Amino acid sequence: MIFQMALLTFQNVSKIYPPYFKALININLKIYKGDFVILTGPTGSGKTTLLKLIYREEKPTSGEIFYEDVPYSKLKKKELSLFRQNLGIIFQDYKLFPELTVYENIKISLVLSQKFVKNDKFLIYEYLERFKLSEKAQKKVKELSGGEQQKVGIIRGIIRDPEILIADEPTGNLDPSSINEILEILKDFHEKGKTIILATHDPIILNQNLGKTIRLNRGELVEDV
Amino acid sequence: MFRYLSKIEIKQSIIYYLFLFLFFSFWNFFSLFSFYFYLNIQNTLQIYQDRLAINMLIFSEKNPLNIFNLLSEIEKIPHVKNIDIVSPEKLLEKVKKDLPSEILENFSEEELKAEFPYILKIYPLSIKDYPALKDRLNLLTKVNSNIQIYEPRFFKLIYYAYFLKIGFVIFVAIWIFFYIFFLYFLNNLLNLHLKNQTQIFLLLGGTLRKFKLLRFFFLVSVLVLAFGHSSSLFFFISDTISSIFPFFKHYPDISKEKDMLYFGIYTFFTIFLLPWLTILISYRNYEI
Asked: Which domains does chain B have, with CATH numbers?
């Protein structure tokens, strides 16, 4: 039997938002390299909070999260930044730079990932073409519709070819054909051995049986399949 | 990367930078002028202080030995720097040309000398010693009616101007604090305004270092422009004042190394060091 070290480990993690809203209660969880984790549960169950803890937008109130065997709390600023450079994050609220163009928003992500790309302009336009956004490349993000902004957010997350892709409700504003397009991309990603953590309650995705499903309810882990 | 971050910073914060330009133009202009006036006042005071003496007039004293004894007594007073003696002969010689010709015709030189007092010009250690010295000397006038004391004209004005030095130090401290507070306030305002963008940048793997450097670059650029603008205006106006009132010296004097050193320190602190420190402090809680 080969011992595999968990990529991410949650050890008795709780998150309480002041004064007393318990967003997550005593979560114990292991995510391995190459896992396709579907995080599901009703609205307010703690999915987004759990993702925020992974990319360290929030810190746990108690407990510890480990990246491989390194506790998050021991990560220095520089190490945290390097860790984030290896993440692809698709935010529920897109988190784009409204003053920058579509092209610039994607380019920033690529530059920050510090990965060598021979022809980044070509790569960006290839993704934009795939998502039918190439004509809007030079438009400011704030001039796009919600669905288009979401697509830009998705491209920004996946173009840097991250080790871990974290997606928070990535299909919320998309039409069924775009959802299928994204699912194809996610499957390709997974086949390349990448780790995907996806929070959703979209039935189209849930019915696909893509991987390990984790169900949360009122901050508690109720099912880990 | 800096190009994109600059775009974010400038597009959203141009109005704040414009405000900084106006504020610093005013602040720097006022600071330079305060120093200009203060140093000129101190300079004038210094010239006057060296000539400032309490004149003690001793009438009807024929015996120089008594004057010598009095002199020894006065020299023991701790506030005394030195004493000059003007004898009736010297005094007569000095004022002879101003005396009406009738007096000179009707009185002999000996008679005139007998009417003239000995004058002791008593110099205090500094202006602040002046009142205490005057009190001590006044005691002598009470025991001897032949002794009178005269203080220089405008003494009160000079005396209070001396204390401007302490007031100026307090003013400078408050004025610098006001500038630091403004820079800190402005940085906080900019940080708050750009908080979302900063957080996105950090979550994508960026560091605050780039934001700090960029902010420093923008602040310094605006400050240099405002400094150039307000300093030129100051030099033009101070030149005009100095040409009208020649006793008003140029500060800073470009030909003097010491002046240029102080001016350089002032520039370094206001344009580079304080902005950088306030940037560092204002970003303390923005790390996620």
From this structure: 2-47+163-282 (no CATH), 53-151 (3.30.70.3040)
